[in-house]
DNA sequence: AGACTGTGTGAGATCGATCTCACACATATT
DNA sequence: AATATGTGTGAGATCGATCTCACACAGTCT
């Protein structure tokens, strides 16, 4: 087919020049050409220049595939995140890409869409590319044989946003439990006792930790946990809308809501509007993860913010440290969160 | 270094099994093993099973690098966009990734950050990986020797969101000029005559087209273009804030503003708030490209929406059609835009 | 019996870059 | 003069998978 195409158009498919071509043009052997271009070993001055000129003329760029086959590694790092459409991950992906480029690497991005199966197959597919290392936000906190396999083969791995049980490697996370606890304690301090939680799938590490912060704060406040106050949803605006509506259609709905990520916070906002629930008058709202939108609404949304700008860079730096041969114990970074009080929480008197 | 690490920990670095290993375990030659695993040519029944078993046992996964070196192509497609953090591109990247995966390919993402130099070096670096094809949103409408080079080497290329002069290849864009014209005509119809334009760098194709739609509408409305009504900014929220402030700090500022993308629209919103300008009372606003936020504000923002969900998929489909050998003239898809009237534009009486 | 066809297998070349080794020639050292 | 050292170069092996070719043996046909 393809050749047929080319023939039909009468086109010459110009193949990229190889080292052999360069060597031939410069009248030297491949070995000498390689020496001249990579400047190692002994090469005569004139010879080197001849080779350079020939390479220039042919527009020679080394075939990284062939280089990689010998060296065993492609200058690519892989990155598997939950969903690039989540601004949190988009930011991280962007930062990783920038740092990778600085280190002369390209970035392959895969989206697990929070499906373990997808994460596994993506990883396998990238591994067969002899990719040098990975940054992964694992879908599941405990189902992680595939990650263990990576470690066993000594492939550098950095976990990001989430860690996985029994996986001993570099990681970058935030203090999810502490952040969630601060948020819920704040709500309790404002007089709320029926505090809703809009959370993600419990397989996900952050979801677990944030849930446990929520529970801890309730316990500290002397409030009994109540399953009717908890709604689970996938992390998309649409699903969060539904989950919020379910939560607030009960006979005695929460007076405050804590949402575990920014897409859910947005979903809750939309749901509240469609239900005619006003913030902070009828319901108080506080979300984990800050987002652009948070300051556009009226009132602005109070959030627990994460140092997004640092997470991706930190993970990338850890990865490239390993790639450049750094040994030593896995580093486990944990960033602090910060509560940003805006206007979406009000004091409750009647409770 | 690396071996030192391994030795220090006393670890065996288990190398992935090769075909040779499999062949040895199965007591056959590499050729036979290859035949058994890829099912071509003649292979005896027992032999095939022996090989399968051996492969299974060793956890053999072919080295795609080696395969690619022979075949000349890696099952990877590249994608160079302006900025993954722009939700428009994030959505596109996501859709391309999904389709690529369906087609058994991985996706390398690069961000040009709207720098021509970065686009060029990224492309070169990906090309040396023998990547099979590219989807690019070119930074510049006319500076495109690097894209010509791609075409000359017969590397499949699909332009997305933007086309480039003199580049004859598949492309997917929207009707920027028409969309912009509709928006501005709508403003004119609502009685506005001092209509501001907050636009991106003129190197960028969409910026040119939207600008020309803006001009066309003004002309049709009998309004003389006025440079003081136009402000240029990079496509980030922060830059757009500044540009908006400049535009509206004049003695006789616009009564309406048309912004050429969603990040700029958000920037304008922030700027208006900080300046105490109320929408739509003081100023009317209409933006190109819909965004989540648009329905969260009060009033909601009127926009010209693009069929984002289709653009990425369409581009990916074009690319994979080419990769599977489809010949024929380049297809140039152009999607229609749709104006979504919400509440950010008001009728102006005193004009 | 001799010439075929069909089936199954292995040896070796290939893709492109790199690296080890051997060799050649110069100059310097004893 | 004989040996060492330094400089420059090419032949060939290597990475791993694939593919062409040659060969071997079965069975079939004249």
TrEMBL record, chains A, B:
<dbReference type="InterPro" id="IPR000843">
    <property type="entry name" value="HTH_LacI"/>
</dbReference>
<dbReference type="Pfam" id="PF00356">
    <property type="entry name" value="LacI"/>
</dbReference>
<dbReference type="GO" id="GO:0003700">
    <property type="term" value="F:DNA-binding transcription factor activity"/>
</dbReference>
<keyword id="KW-0238">DNA-binding</keyword>
<dbReference type="InterPro" id="IPR010982">
    <property type="entry name" value="Lambda_DNA-bd_dom_sf"/>
</dbReference>
<dbReference type="Pfam" id="PF13377">
    <property type="entry name" value="Peripla_BP_3"/>
</dbReference>
<keyword id="KW-0805">Transcription regulation</keyword>
<dbReference type="GO" id="GO:0000976">
    <property type="term" value="F:transcription cis-regulatory region binding"/>
</dbReference>
<dbReference type="InterPro" id="IPR028082">
    <property type="entry name" value="Peripla_BP_I"/>
</dbReference>
<protein>
    <submittedName>
        <fullName>LacI family transcriptional regulator</fullName>
    </submittedName>
</protein>
<keyword id="KW-0804">Transcription</keyword>
<dbReference type="InterPro" id="IPR046335">
    <property type="entry name" value="LacI/GalR-like_sensor"/>
</dbReference>
<feature type="domain" description="HTH lacI-type">
    <location>
        <begin position="17"/>
        <end position="71"/>
    </location>
</feature>
């Amino acid at each position: 087919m393809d050749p047929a195409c080319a023939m039909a158009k009468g086109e010459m498919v110009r193949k990229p020049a190889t080292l052999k071509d360069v060597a031939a043009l410069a009248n030297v052997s491949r070995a000498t050409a390689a020496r001249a271009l990579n400047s190692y070993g002994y090469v005569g001055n004139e010879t080197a220049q001849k080779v350079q000129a020939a390479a220039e003329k042919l527009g020679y760029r080394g075939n990284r595939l062939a280089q990689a086959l010998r060296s065993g590694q492609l200058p690519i790092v892989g990155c598997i995140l939950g969903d690039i459409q989540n601004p949190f991950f988009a930011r991280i992906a962007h930062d990783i890409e920038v740092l990778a480029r600085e280190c002369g690497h390209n970035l392959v991005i895969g989206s697990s869409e929070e499906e373990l199966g997808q994460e596994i197959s993506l990883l396998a597919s990238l591994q067969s590319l002899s990719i040098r290392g990975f940054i992964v936000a694992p879908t599941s906190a405990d189902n992680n044989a595939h990650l263990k396999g990576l470690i066993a083969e000594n492939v550098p791995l950095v976990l990001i946003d989430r860690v996985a049980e029994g996986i001993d490697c570099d990681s970058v996370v935030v203090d999810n439990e502490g952040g969630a606890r601060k948020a819920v304690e704040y709500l309790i301090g404002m007089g709320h006792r029926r505090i809703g939680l809009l959370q993600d799938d419990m397989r996900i590490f952050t979801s677990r930790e944030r849930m446990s912060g929520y529970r801890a704060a309730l316990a500290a406040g002397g409030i009994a946990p109540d399953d009717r106050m908890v709604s689970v949803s996938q992390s998309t605006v649409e699903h969060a809308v539904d989950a919020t509506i379910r939560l607030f259609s009960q006979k005695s709905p929460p007076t405050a809501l804590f949402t575990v990520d920014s897409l859910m916070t947005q979903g809750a906002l939309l749901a509240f509007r469609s239900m005619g629930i006003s913030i902070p008058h009828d319901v108080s709202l506080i979300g984990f993860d800050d987002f652009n939108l948070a300051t556009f609404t009226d009132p602005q949304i109070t959030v627990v913010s994460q140092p997004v700008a640092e997470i991706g860079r930190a993970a990338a730096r850890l990865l490239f440290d390993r790639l450049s041969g750094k040994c030593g114990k896995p580093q486990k970074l944990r960033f602090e969160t910060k509560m940003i009080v805006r206007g979406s929480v009000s004091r409750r008197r009647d409770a």
